[in-house]
Every structure is written in structure tokens, then in C-alpha cells.
């Protein structure tokens, strides 16, 4: 895979991640209306404590940690 292919692959991944987040935000209940919210990466609910700390959270804590680790790995 050459540099152009790698750049296209990374670009495609970023676009897909942004689209998944947009789909999740459109499907999520309004932040001012409490209720269970589902992680965009797995079928688990986003923890109430996480939503209290970050009402716009799209991922459960384990999936968020994994996404951040993947981003750090991709940046290296």
C-alpha cells in the first residue's frame, strides 16, 4: 500500500467515524430528557455517571477508552 492509499484509507475511516457519530446524535434522545442511551460502538447502555459528566457522550466508557487508544495509535 503506497502513501496515497494509506491517506485515502485513513480519510475513509475518519469520514465513517464522523458519520457514525452524526447518526448516533440524530437517533439519541434529547439530552434534557433522561433515559438510557446506547453506545454507538456496542449494544451496551452508556453509563448514567458518564452521561451526567458528559451529556453528549456517544460511547460507553470501555468503547471510549478503546477509541481513544486507537486514535493515539493512528497518530503515532
Task: Set down the secondary structure blueprint.
Elements: H1 3-27, H2 48-53, H3 61-75
Description:
Residues 38-68 form the Zinc finger DksA/TraR C4-type domain. Pfam families: zf-dskA_traR. Keywords: Metal-binding, Zinc, Zinc-finger. With 76 residues, the chain is an all-alpha fold. It has helices at residues 3-27, 48-53, 61-75. The protein has one domain (3-75). The longest helix is centred in the N-terminal third of the chain and has 25 residues, at 3-27.
Q: Count the beta strands.
A: 0
Low-confidence stretches: none
Q: Helix and strand succession?
A: HHH
The class by helix and strand makeup works out as mainly alpha
What is the gyration radius calculated from CA atoms? 15 Å
Q: Quick check: average pLDDT?
A: 83
> Oligomerization state of this entry?
single chain
Q: Total domains, how many?
A: 1
The amount of helix comes to 55-70%
Q: How many helices in DSSP terms?
A: 3
InterPro entries: Znf_DskA_TraR (IPR000962)
Organism: Brevundimonas vitisensis
Zinc finger (dksA C4-type): 39-63
Keywords: Metal-binding, Zinc, Zinc-finger
Amino acid at each position: 500500500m503506497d502513501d496515497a492509499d494509506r491517506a485515502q484509507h485513513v480519510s475513509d475511516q475518519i469520514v465513517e467515524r464522523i458519520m457514525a457519530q452524526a447518526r448516533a446524535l440524530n437517533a439519541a434522545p434529547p439530552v434534557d430528557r433522561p433515559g438510557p442511551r446506547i453506545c454507538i460502538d456496542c449494544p451496551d447502555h452508556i453509563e448514567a455517571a458518564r452521561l451526567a459528566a458528559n451529556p453528549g457522550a456517544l460511547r460507553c466508557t470501555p468503547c471510549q477508552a478503546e477509541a481513544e487508544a486507537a486514535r493515539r495509535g493512528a497518530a503515532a
